[in-house]
Amino acid sequence: MALTGVTQKTVSDDEEGMRLDRWFKAHFPGLGFGQLQKLLRSGQVRIDGSRAKTSSRVETGQVVRVPPLDSAVGKPRHMTANTIRDRHDADVLRDMLLFEDKKVFVFNKPSGLAVQGGSGINRSVDSMLESLRDKSGQKPRLVHRLDRDTSGVLVVAKTRGAAAALTKSFRHRDTDKTYWALVRGVPRKRDIRISTYLVKEQTENGDRMRVAKHGERGADHSVSHVRVIDSGPRSVSWVEMKPVTGRTHQLRVHAQHIGHPIVGDPKYFDVENWEIPGGVQKRLHLHARRIRIPHPDAGQPMLDITAPLPSHMVQSWNLFVFDEEDGMSLDEDVLQ
Q1: pLDDT of 50-84, one tens digit each?
Q2: Residue ranges per domain, the chain?
Q3: Which distant-in-sequence residues (6+ apart) come within 8 Å of 327 by Cβ?
């Protein structure tokens, strides 16, 4: 159902204590998490006249201000490489948009879409950014990367100055990046710190990264943190992964290194005689869920952006009865 004007909805008795994002999901199932975040940041959603956050808890009798919502609210849309193939670049990017201001775009990159061009790549985020040049002809700039098959939060600078500031934040590790993944098996420890050296090597199937010895030529030190959020009934686990360093394929190699490769990983899943559970798509289950990074304007609050899961991971989460709120609550507890 489309809402063409502002409405006021009163919280009922059986909704007491619900998180606001869950309340919206119950009333407006097609409203994406990123869309809700934008409405909250701009102050369009309010509780009893006050600003709120996705983690706010509603109370019986409170009045939630609901702004006009598009008709698409009743029809959730998941972007995939196939759904964007025949559409104009600017339209595709706008559908991917999670956040925008004068200095920054933040997109939810779909799995299968390359960030940059290369051999055999006809379309990438970088090439599509040509469609978003500003009035002075300035093209938005990439400031970090995601693997082609990894979905999730991608930050893009609108100006040269913003690009310099954001790149500096990534280089100095002032960012907090959270990934969600589905891995094979159940780690014995709930919290794991992984510290290795990684080096690129050429194989018959193309370049790949491998764990190297300290001092090996071309090897770079890499550190990741892994935390188990929940485990499924068929020897799989939902894990939160936080890269401290930013090496190529780092999280994928580290998951393999500890014996729990990411489900659907065509390069690094090396467990023989393990069959993917029925109902799970054989696609990389790695998603850049959240990023916290200083805004390029020093006076602005830190950017804190979350991207909803891609459709193939939603399908797996539903299959294993994983509750996204468990992951969101866990992250909020750590940040407090």
Answers
A1: 889 888 999 999 999 888 775 444 444 556 666 66
A2: 7-74
A3: 180, 229, 238, 240, 289
Pick the catalytic residue from 147, 149, 265, 331: 147
Q: How confident is the model at residue 38 (pLDDT cuts 50, 70, 90)?
A: confident
155 pLDDT band, cuts 50/70/90, is: very high
With a CB cutoff of 8 Å and minimum separation 6, the contacts of 232 are 238, 277, 319, 320, 321, 322
Q: Please name the fold of domain 7-74.
A: 3.10.290
Question: Could you give the maximum distance between any two Cα atoms of the chain, in Å?
Answer: 65
pLDDT of residue 330: 61
Would you place residue 2 in the very low, low, confident or very high pLDDT band (cuts 50, 70, 90)? very low
The Cα 254–Cα 246 span in angstroms is 12
Q: Comparing C-alpha atoms, which of 281, 300, 166, 182 is closest to residue 238?
A: 182
Q: Any catalytic annotation for residue 147?
A: yes
pLDDT one-digit tens code per residue, 78-129: 566 666 665 688 888 988 998 888 999 999 999 999 999 877 788 999 999 9
